[in-house]
Amino acid sequence: MSVIGQSIKRVEDPRLITGEAKYTDDLTLPGLTYAAFLRSPFAHANIKGINTDKAKALPGVVGVFTGKDFMDLNAMPCAWQASGAQNNINTPRAIEPDRVTHTGMPVAVVVAEDRYIAEDALALIEVDWEPLPVVTDSKKAIEAGAPQLHANAPNNIVLDWHCGDADGTAAALNASDVVVKQHIVNQRLIPTPMETRGCMAQYNPAADEYTIWLTAQAPHVGRLLMTAFVFGIPETKMRLISPQIGGGFGAKIYLYPEYVAVTALAKKVGRPVKWQETRRENYVATTHGRDHQTDIEVGATKDGKITALNVTTYANFGGMISTIAPGIPTTLYGRLLSGPYKLPHIHARVVGVYTNTAMVDAYRGAGRPEATYVLERAMDLVANELGLDPADVRRKNFVPSNEFPYTPADNLLAGLSYDSGNYEWTLDKALEMLDYQGFRAEQAEARKNGKYLGVGFSSYIELCGVAPSAWIGLPNQGWGAGLWESANVRMHLTGKVVVTTGSQSHGQGHETTMAQIVADQLGISIGDVIVQHSDTLGTPFGYGSYGSRSAAVGGTAVFRAAERIKEKAKRLAAHMMEANVDDLIYEDGKVMVKGTPASSKTIQEIALQAAVGYSLPSGMEPFLDETSYFDPPNCTYPFGTHICVVEVDAKTGHTKILRYIAADDVGNVINPMIVDGQLHGGIAQGIAQALYEGAVYDDNGTLTSGSLMDYAVPTAGMLPSFETGRTVTPSPVNPLGVKGAGEAGTIASTPAVANAVMDALKPFGVKHIDMPLTPEKVWKAMQSGNGGKG
Amino acid sequence: MKVSMKVNGQSREADVEPRWLLVHVLRDKLGLTGTNIGCDTSQCGACTVLMNGEAVKSCNVLAVQANGAEITTIEGVRTNGAYHPVQQAFWDQHGLQCGFCTPGMIMTTIDMLKHHEKLSDDAIRHGLEGNLCRCTGYENIVKAVRDAADKV
Amino acid sequence: MYPAPFEYYAPTSVSEALSLLASNADAKLLAGGHSLLPAMKLRLATPAALIDIGKIAELNGITDAGDKIVIGALTTHHQVETSLLMKSASPLLSKVAAHIGDTQVRNRGTIGGSLAHADPAADYPAAILALGAVIEVQGANGKRTINADDLFTGIFATSVGANEIVTAVHVPKTNAKGNGVAYAKFPHPASRYAIAGVAVWVNIQDDIVQDIRIGVTGASDHAQRATKAEAALKGKPMNDSNIEAAAKLASDGLATMGDMFASGDYRAHLVNTLALDALNEAHHAAHGW
């Protein structure tokens, strides 16, 4: 029986459930020192001077450094500029020498014998600040007279970009039976992986080489950026290792200033240096997500067929540009605004803005949650305007299942098409799981008793398995590199297989799923396969893990490499059995003559033969060792429908989720248990955006939601149990037929919950409330509506 | 100041400053890095250990307060090399992804199950309010606790 | 994350602790540490000395003292939550303790520490007021008692003297026929503290309210009695319409606070809503329903 599709227990887990796994802060080296960063308390200020004398004099302090000590290094690179627009880029330096543009930017760093002393020394550093005026809101930042953050960005505009067809969309709107307009905010979020960022660096003077352990979702990319762009040294001079990583969600993709500073410090102080940020630092200085202010105009016929969608979004980038920030609200958001619908006309304009807030970059879903939220609110607003059922309106507008591959209108996807889909199938599945008619009857009855139930739909597609290099790269979408993935598969003479991959697992279970792929391909036991990753020494260059790409792209590279092993094995077996290779098949871990199972060689026998090299066919090199670099021909497009049922307490405005139903299609599934786990986690984060989370800055640019005391990351008691259903529409894009599942949960869930709350509030005549839908907001809306009599 | 504790059944001593948190002494001085630190407001629970048999947040206990105490960390819950039923249940039910919150979850669960063998899902969720997870959405963690409850 | 340095003392008796308090000007007492240490970790509090009273055994324990129960100051929330004596004889504190923080916090936090710290959003203060508990303190001049109504004076402020230690809390038994207690809380989703919390103790005979005490926490700078609501029910039948009318008065006279999560107006509304729930629950409990 194939192991593909089986819920194999994870091979990663023994080291995790015992505490043996080593995360970055668990590591130590002889002579280790600890770094602490002094961070700006001001959101916008000039540094007139810094006096570090008192800090340097504290016993136990090894050194104190400021921005001027790092001027031999370049600023962080921006690796993805939005194509088709001017990008006014400003990126941070390792330590800011002159001016800060958001609270929490590092302005000095202490290296000390222990963490406590390092913290003590921070208080002794004296900074002469010249505060400057602050702006934190994107729309205020572009107004005349707003504080200017960067000389190269007049009116604080980073970019002004658009996709789709402006004129055709405007004309179609004008001709529509109805046009619904709505202002929609997608609030800023703080990713909050349970492990904060950390970095430990060691410099070897004899070899002039650095070894760096750091919390990075893409160590090869990190090395490339650090060596080629920041330090100006060959790649061979740095080895980057991601130890066990405690969650990333996008926030650990980037090359951060602190990593560069710690690395440089290892050389400056001549001892290893380790830094692990506190949660407070994580909140002010690790990238945030989302932060869009959007105006939509959606046109429809009176029977609910969408005629056009025009979207204008102001996207907050923060005080500086993070590594891939410009691509997120453009390629990964604007281009996804057709969703699962056959929209005939569509246009999106995105204005990226600098403000005095933390940098914004990809956070789980990266652009697609923002697009789905806009679209799914639009569908409900249209349904409400026309008095139609929201499920019917969605169904009416779906891309039909016989129209795949589907190319969204107006060249929205810049040359790509959705791979495969059957949107009605997942909608029907979700409706069946709910018993939709039964619910509407229950809802009507409940309203008579002053009880407010609501149901919310979210039908989504997402674009993941990123991406064809030619499409996402400089020639087309502006990403300054490729986006293929790599794998090397090697079977040793004992029959054991080592897989090395450019993917990076930070909780997704790649060591298990990739082993499943190899075990299935080669017909061997999973226990004979080990997957190694996350060390630039010993793994092929890979672009890392984000954008739900590690199964679709990384897994395919593994598959292809294993396929090549099989091909070579067949050729060697032909030689061993003196048979014609065309008469041989590979099955169940053996190469055999078709129809003559008795005449066969096991893969282990073949591997031994290949490794010792006593008798190989002419031209064949020893060893079973194959590498594949897979550049996908398309992205992949998971889809589904989520349904959320809520009860809103009229007395307090508190929302309780009664049911959460997810019907998803992520293509073929390698490990159902792992896929479900990814969906659960994603759904939890999306629910949290709808009801609980929201980063808040005050007018001084202070992050008032600066800790878990104010930023409500949900506990177990704040979430429901999830009901997951599945359909399988294989992807034609890769031989595994997989689409990717890491972000779909987050992409789908936020609008399902928001729509459910709005549905519950229908009797109060409330059209839209921005998230998070806190009890007070909801309660206030219920007071101002028509008293629940709809 | 000298503190002595029994940690995972062994007598351990350390010379500490009064301000050092128990979690730092366990991790940095005694090399028991299984216990993790996930916040600085004593909320996330990644640092949970058993102190005199009760789940406590070791980031919110001074090492000097633990003088003379019995501490059990994640490294100490196996018995004769076999997994504790709670550890096994987390593995069986896929109750972890990145693993960072897992040692704390396991220690709190061990404490919870000592007081109640049979817990409703609501009671499990309530009992885990001091342990944050960002990966699993808690779905499989609740399954793991239920599974373990049947086995302790 | 890393507290500033301090001197540390671990006295083994109350008198030793008192003399240390007297001789260290900038000292704080450390019990469970779940109010003080979080502040010290963020360097919001930087006392020069900590006097750890956690090992003073005589301060821990729950004792049946006839018509009341005496709870030692170092008794943990978990001990209060699970005490069979409390649950049967004076259940309000056990109910409230279950709401405090989380499992791990309840294993370390103490009733004495919580009351002395007087966080305006802590849970116990509402219950202490509702029970009319008596707080026992000890100072250089010996022991004295403070009535609950006189304990909380302002934000993080009590009438416990600078050189006094809370040693015990005396709570009345509430298990006589006709007595009902309840606690209703609306927690902050992030901190789990009370946005508002209302505790009720009612004594009903023949369905007429003989005595009623309502304590409110979370909504203003210190916990207070809802005196107008109490007056609206005392001596009256405890029926639905009287309960409803009284609940509407629960926030009267409260100077409610607003913050990022909830405005003062909404807090006031929550107080009234929670009061309704708590009054109904206490009513049912009084009848044994």
Characteristic terms for this protein:
heterotrimer; B: alpha+beta; five-stranded mixed sheet; globular; C: 289 residues; alpha+beta; Uridine Diphospho-n-acetylenolpyruvylglucosamine Reductase, domain 2; Uridine Diphospho-n-acetylenolpyruvylglucosamine Reductase, domain 3; Enolase-like, domain 1; 3 domains; four-stranded antiparallel sheet
Describe, in plain words, how this protein is organized in 3D.
The complex is a heterotrimer of chains A (790), B (152) and C (289). Chain A is an alpha+beta fold and 790 residues long. In chain A, 28% of the residues lie in helices and 23% in strands. Chain A contains 19 helices and 26 strands. In chain A, strands 3-5-1-12-9-10-11 form a seven-stranded mixed sheet, sandwiched between helices. A five-stranded mixed sheet of chain A has the order 7-15-14-13-8, with helices on both faces. A four-stranded mixed sheet of chain A has the order 16-24-25-26, with helices on both faces. In chain A, helix 14 runs parallel beside helix 15, helix 15 (550-577) crosses helix 16 (603-612) and helix 17 (672-691) crosses helix 18 (744-760). Chain B contains five helices and five strands, in the order E-E-H-E-E-E-H-H-H-H. A five-stranded mixed sheet of chain B has the order 2-1-5-3-4, sandwiched between helices. By secondary structure, chain C is α+β, with helices and mostly antiparallel strands. Chain C has three domains: 7-52, Uridine Diphospho-n-acetylenolpyruvylglucosamine Reductase, domain 2 (2-Layer Sandwich); 57-172, Uridine Diphospho-n-acetylenolpyruvylglucosamine Reductase, domain 3, CATH 3.30.465.10; 179-287, Enolase-like, domain 1. Chain C is 33% helix and 27% strand. Chain C has helices at residues 14-23, 36-41, 77-82, 84-89, 92-97, 103-108, 111-117, 124-131, 227-233, 240-247, 264-287; strands at residues 7-9, 27-30, 49-52, 62-64, 68-72, 134-139, 142-147, 152-154, 157-158, 165-172, 179-187, 194-205, 208-217, 224-225. In chain C, the strands form four sheets. Chain C has a five-stranded antiparallel sheet, sandwiched between helices. Chain C starts with 6 loop residues before the first strand and ends with a helix. Chains in contact: A-B, A-C, B-C. The interface between A and B is large, with 60 and 58 residues.
